[in-house]
Design goal:
- The strands form two sheets. Strands 4-3-5-6 form a four-stranded parallel beta sheet. Strands 1-2 form a two-stranded antiparallel sheet.
- 43% of the residues lie in helices and 13% in strands.
- The chain is built from eight helices and six strands, in the order H-H-H-E-E-H-E-H-E-H-E-H-E-H.
- By secondary structure, the chain is of the alpha/beta class.
- The chain has two domains: 3-51, Helicase, Ruva Protein, domain 3 (Orthogonal Bundle); 75-175 and 185-189, Dna Topoisomerase Vi A Subunit, Chain: A, domain 2 (3-Layer(aba) Sandwich).
Length: 198
Amino acid sequence: MSRLLQDAVSEFAKLPGIGRRTALRLAMHLLKMEPESVEQMTESIARFRRDIRHCELCNNLSDTARCPICSNPERDRTTICVVEQVGDLMSIENTRQYRGLYHVLGGVISPMQGVGPSDLKIDLLLEKVASGAVKEVILAISTSVEGETTLFYILNRLKQYPAVKVSTIARGIGFGDELEYVDELTITHALLNRREVE
């Protein structure tokens, strides 16, 4: 294999979820592209990495000090949806059902990976809540063990603000899932979050 091809494959394989076979396919695809398209792609990636910032208010990605969501005067500033990563924020935004603000933690508490509460943007969230303008905090955090640990940690920290409503996104059994294949934690959440049939 060409040294140049090996180098390209090695670089692609550094990306999460990309194995060597997929990296090879991506490298070979680049050879089929027009040189101008490859240059545009590499310049776009370099510009993204060089110029991207974290919003000073919510920790979302932006090319300015404040992201478009925090800058939008039509957003409900009394509600904050807390998510782990920017990808989670994008998933919620794509539903077009939520009109409040966000807070991106930057991960979850994971002692095994060396991530503690101080490594996340939890204090920034508490500063916003302490300002008195926030009426509800929605915790949209994954149901993994680390996610649950993070959720309980934030719940305990928010207890000092009794006037603020704290909620979590609904958890339970997905549409089309068969009960015998669902894990115990999901069934527990489904039972606790059950609703009356009308």
